Amino acid sequence: MIKKILLTLLITTHSLVASAHNLVLGQPLPAVDVAKYGEVILEGKDTQFVPWSSTQLPGKVRVIQAIAGRSAAKEMNAPLMAALTAAEFPRDAYQTTTIINQNDAVWGTGSFVKSSAQSSKTDFPWSSIVLDQAGIVAQSWQLQNRSSAIIVLDKQGIVQFVQEGSLNDDAIQNLLSLIQQQLEK
């Protein structure tokens, strides 16, 4: 009986540890590069992909939304994304970066995920959108599958906030306040 309880606790603890991200408040993000596809950029009315690196992030206050390539993951923090758009933070000092894990998409939907990323860049040209075909970012940062992670970086690229899953209304308001505080520094 005790062995069963200990085994259950061990398995539960291991799964919790295995699914926990490795992002640390007060530290920079673990460096990661996305070569395939990478950042979506606009060239006229067309989109192109260029290699992307997390070392490009310092310089602005940023909210990073790292999401699985699934509509359910995108919807998890849609209220936050709407609030960020409505806040109209200054584009010279703030940017949202969305990293889409195409490797964590429903089987057979990869081309839809790619076209959605391209369409989002057209709709929100001031945002940075990264399409990570192989899921390198999620692996490097040890993010949960089928989920959404929200990360706030200061201008130096230091993690100020991180949460996986949906943010509630209070968390969204606190996050908006944190961004404003970081912009005023």
TrEMBL record:
It comes from bacterium 19MO03SA05. InterPro entries: YtfJ_HI0045. Keywords: Signal. Gene3D superfamilies: Glutaredoxin. The keyword Flavoprotein does not apply. Transmembrane segments: none annotated. This is YtfJ family protein. Pfam families: YtfJ_HI0045 (PF09695). Residues 1-20 form the signal peptide. The keyword Signal applies.
